[in-house]
Amino acid sequence: MRAPIGLKIRNQRKSLGYSQSNFAKSIGISPSYLNLIEANKRDVGGTLLQTIALKLDISLDELTGENEQRLLSALEEIFSDPALESLKMGSAEARDLVATNPRAARALHQTYRAYAEAVAEAEAYSNRLKSDPLLADLLHQMLSQITAVRSSAEILTDVPDLELAEQQRFHGMVSRESRALSDVAQTLIDQFEGEAGRNRSLTPARELDDLIVEEKNYFPTLEEKAAALRAGFARRGSVVEAELAVQLETEFGITTKRVAELGGTETGFPMQYRFDAKDKVLWFQGSATLATRQFQMARLYSELRGRDELIALAKDERLSSAASRRLAIRALGSYLAGAIIFPYEDFLREAEQSSYDIDYLSQRYAASFEQVAHRLVTLRRPGAEGIPFGFLRADPSGRLSKHFPLPGMAWPNAGHGCPLWTLFDAFRHPNDVVRQTVSYPDGGRYLMLAKSFAKRADRFQSRPLYTSVMLVCDVLYADQTVYGKGMSLDNPQVDVPVGPTCRMCIRRSCESRQEEMFTGAGGEHTVRLPLTEINFDIGGS
Predict the structure, then answer these.
(1) Which of 60, 82, 55, 187 minimizes the C-alpha distance to 134?
(2) What DSSP letter does each residue of 508-534 carry, written as one string?
């Protein structure tokens, strides 16, 4: 969905007193073309957009409205929710609301997020009540104790000639059962509060996402800190595992050790590393790759040496809870680790010289495909920017587990994406880079490149865990990458027609549709769903 850039241009032009013809002449285009731009019927970018911004005395960021584009995508996703479908609101209403009353649009967005969180909590409570034997037992105990208290109270009330010893016995029973009831009730409350705390991850994660996106995933203080920390390393041109081990032991007395198997899990997932703060040992499972060991050592070093900078950034007012601040420190620690391993200027230069060949950069820096892809997304320094990429990661079920959006390109914040994305096709071609040009329903064209890979199995019996990582850029930048070579970048006819999700996609005849589309303001119609399901089996043809 296009952000209303044209409306901003028209309003700012009028406020400065320019006529359409005079303004068009001053920026070197025809009045008819300017009219199409202001009507939001033509995309505008590059040198022309910079010229318009300069002539209108407005910043490029304010004119392009990247935050508004993200808000537009969020509103379209909100309007596609079944709870709001009867209102028949769609992309046109979202665009009008953002253009005319952005504060109301943000209020709607925040309200919907609170609603989604409440639904998640209610579902968690419902599931616990239906399936948790502990809660069922606690409720049974409470009913039994309430019955006992009631029976004793009725005897004391209805039998006035009880002997003193009997009265004392029943009073004792009421007191005892009441205390037991209170204890059970407190246990039940603790269980519910614990469940609520574990299921309130939506808001902290989304708050962190919003912070990262609004900062364009670029944090100057962490880049400066990384440069200062790198100066303390040895003479080599890149940070390597051995040097990180020396720095950890020299500065903090931390040693690194490898073991055949790390006992137990702390996260519910198989562990490849664990830091024992008490004994000052960073443990790695024997199967952990060099890229994993190097990055985790760099992250630990970053969290220790960059503690002040990380805490300062985590105090941002956009992070409203302790949970979101903890997530931020962890995520920003990873950012700082990446900035240490991939120094900004050197990495950008080598990326450009290699035409953004991720496999080459992975070999050059002893890093994984995903680590390099992460770093490419952060090359947003003003005046020294790399290609603007979007980033997505998915598991074989199709669930999106990590994302960084590309402004102007709609995709979901969670759940599943379009089954035609190369992100999912990559699972059929493990360890190969799969690429394609795609067209969105709004006319946007993009280059998508993805690679799937497996975490190394630690023993014969272990099954590998597959992951797919995708980078996306506007097709205008595709010829600057090695992945655009040999592709028909100027021919939209060869593009794969895709969308954000089935529910948000307006392509009525798509053979890959898995869910009925949201009708929005366009009215009701029938959508045919295919009989087969998209198959994410590994290595299939």
Answers:
(1) 187
(2) TT-TT--SPPP-GGG-----PPPSSPP
